[in-house]
Write a structure and sequence with these properties.
- By secondary structure, the chain is α/β, with parallel strands linked by helices.
- About 20% of the residues lie in helices and about 45% in strands.
- The chain has helices spanning about 155-160, 165-185, 190-195, and strands at about 5-10, 15-20, 25-30, 35-45, 50-60, 65-75, 80-90, 95-105, 110-120, 125-135, 140-150.
- Strands 1-3-5-7-9-11 form a six-stranded parallel β-sheet, with helices on one face.
- Helix 1 (about 155-160) packs across helix 2 (about 165-185).
Amino acid sequence: MKMKGIYLLGTDKLPSTVRIGEGEKVRTTLVALPGVAADVNLEVVLDGEGAELDIAGLYVCSGSDRLNLNVNVRHDRGGGISRQLFRGIAGGGSAVEFNGLVYVAPDAQKTKASQESRALLLSRGARVQAKPQLEIYADDVECSHGATVGFPDEEELFYMRSRGIPEEEARRLQMVSFLAPVLERLPQEFADRITEEL
């Protein structure tokens, strides 16, 4: 099944399995807005030489929102490229879980894969768990993964406030800046709608 450019989680139907063939390129962005309750189980198989996947995700959760993101990317043939970038903000008593797996088959030499998950907590009651994983059976690859979960930088906030920016606006600017790498992938009108809700 083919993927479209943007999926609004909890509203749009996301395929469970996607195959990317030789020379094909897929770019998609997943978005979860406040009020979401969703379980995402996505497997993407790169089964052709030179197949490429560029997937990003953005979530803004609050209250009792619940989001489970399970993304399994399989490199079954060599020369493929996959990029995963997830950025999210969690407040209230929301709970987010990200489980990401990059699997590289024994014959998938020259694979390039990166996986990044970063989250910002706005309250002590919010919870984000990130489990990035690499399973590599080839020896000529370039693969990386990483995850961070933390609170907004108070020194950054102090700096903006010392320049005359009111605290509420400074906090909003921090959040917009944090989400920017994924926001810039969205149509301007949609990105503006998200930033207005922060």
